Amino acid sequence: MPHSSLPIQPSDPPSEASDSKIPARAPADGAGTANPLVPSDDDTLARAQRGDHQAFAQLYSLHKRRIYSLCLRMVGNTAEAEDLTQEAFLQLHRKIATFRGDSAFSTWMHRLAINVVLMHLRRKGLALISLDEAMDPTPEEGPGRSFGSPDLNLTGAIDRLALERAVTDLPAGYRLIFVLHDIEGYEHNEIATMLDCSIGNSKSQLHKARLKLRDTLRNTPRQETKR
Amino acid sequence: MTDNRNTMSCADFQAQLPELIGSGADASTHPHLQNCELCRALLADLETIAEAARQLFPIVEPPEDLWEHIESALKDESGGVSPDAEKDEEKGS
Questions:
Q1: Taking CB atoms and an 8 Å cutoff, what residues of chain A touch B73?
Q2: Which residue of A5, A150, A192, B61 is surrounded by the most CB atoms within 10 Å?
Q3: Every domain of chain A and the residues it spans
Q4: Which domain holds residue B33?
Q5: What is the CATH number of domain A13-123?
């Protein structure tokens, strides 16, 4: 898959039309929700769109946690997450006047940040091409690796920190799909559009990510998996 | 391999699993699972992981100085003029 085939370009604003398909998860930091503490959210946005720097700073305060957390999940390290959060807000500053309000601002901002991360990963040479190979699993990663003793069933025994560590340690391509689908709630068709891959490949890559997590968690010392 | 009484092998079932799960169908009703403990355990684990993921990663606060970096970059982008000064200039003109 050539890099140029990705539909995500730095100058492309998030598509509000496609945003309408994004699951409407409530932002965990309250941004974009009916919060009585920020009754002037719309006014703040309007002022920021007119170039009011203080209003832009307020938008940063409202959205910084969610955007930084998203970046951190997607790339798995704090230094990159900081750089990407900065780039996301710089992109926001350049594009905010183009926001028409067809979708929630938080949704639009979220999508913009994802695009920034995807561009970054592409520049780093993330082998998203592996998505195309997902339907041809290697002997090390294929179905045969899925077998395990029933007594190692994970049900009810997953420690949150152990799972977070396991997700962080996933190969970048797997982590990307897992975060977008299982954590951020995007559907396979949305991920396929974002990553310019087939829906089947998105499903396959997610499955492999979960299998890898399962392997990792099963190999985690038991004292670390107990709550 | 599990001695299941269905025609589908575990390998065949697991090869179909990504599509089966991804389609949103209830994979637990698949005939292969009626007699295959290993594949039932696998499916249960994968569902547990997916469910646990929804509770993952609390919202994290970025470093306090990140905004200063952003402001500095905004200043650079505007040719060295601070965003505030730029706005003041617009008001004055």
A1: 86, 90
A2: A192
A3: 13-123, 128-225
A4: 10-53
A5: 1.10.1740.10
